[in-house]
Amino acid sequence: MPITPRARRLQQGSGTPDIAANRYHDRQLGAEVVNIVVGGCVVSDDPNVVITTTLGSCIAACLFDPVAAIGGMNHFLLPDHNGDRLSISSRYGSAAMEQLINRLLAATGRRDRLRAKIFGGASVNGAPRSAGIGQRNVEFVMEYLAAEGIPTMSWDVGGTVARAVRFYPTSGRTQRRLIGEETVRDIARSETSFMDRLRKTGIDGDVELF
């Protein structure tokens, strides 16, 4: 299926090459699906685009401007914090949120019209070893949105079950599905690998995600 001019304007950010967004046409949905993993960020004003992700401890923030009919999703996981790493963890989360907001504003979105829907932050078996990391992710994103004055229209967070999320960026509509144990193990491995990379490389000075 040819990519429409609007789809070409889809803005896509990801981390290292092995943390990427995968785009494909889904015949059942009749849409171009963009799936993101931890470290990903996608913004689109194409009504034929659906943004998807799967979440364990991670957070997906779905932000949209209902007037401009544009929206985007990120997928992030706060790094461990011990002592002074708390401020580093907060800076990392802020950078993930700022990237999404800035991409929306650089297109046709307006800050005063942005709305949010939040997913994730579960405590799943085999997820990153830090106690309570899912809850910390939830607390961070809720506090961040409140501080930025962005209304949170709905949220599905916490618990012990992983989630699959679909986001329709031009309308702000979302769908959530609970997912099975095998997928949960895959998500946990992915999140643990991401955390291990952060531990090995360190996060010093300015935070640079992408």
From TrEMBL:
It catalyses: L-glutaminyl-[protein] + H2O = L-glutamyl-[protein] + NH4(+). One of its GO terms (molecular function) is protein-glutamine glutaminase activity. The keyword Disulfide bond does not apply. InterPro entries: CheD-like_sf (IPR038592), Chemorcpt_Glu_NH3ase_CheD (IPR005659), Cytotoxic_necrot_fac-like_cat (IPR011324). Probably deamidates glutamine residues to glutamate on methyl-accepting chemotaxis receptors (MCPs), playing an important role in chemotaxis. Its EC number is 3.5.1.44. CDD domains: CheD. The keyword Cell inner membrane does not apply. GO terms for biological process: chemotaxis. Pfam families: CheD. It comes from the Bacteria. SUPFAM superfamilies: CNF1/YfiH-like putative cysteine hydrolases. The lineage of its organism: Bacteria, Pseudomonadati, Pseudomonadota, Alphaproteobacteria, Rhodospirillales. Keywords: Chemotaxis, Hydrolase, Plasmid. Belongs to the CheD family. This is Probable chemoreceptor glutamine deamidase CheD.
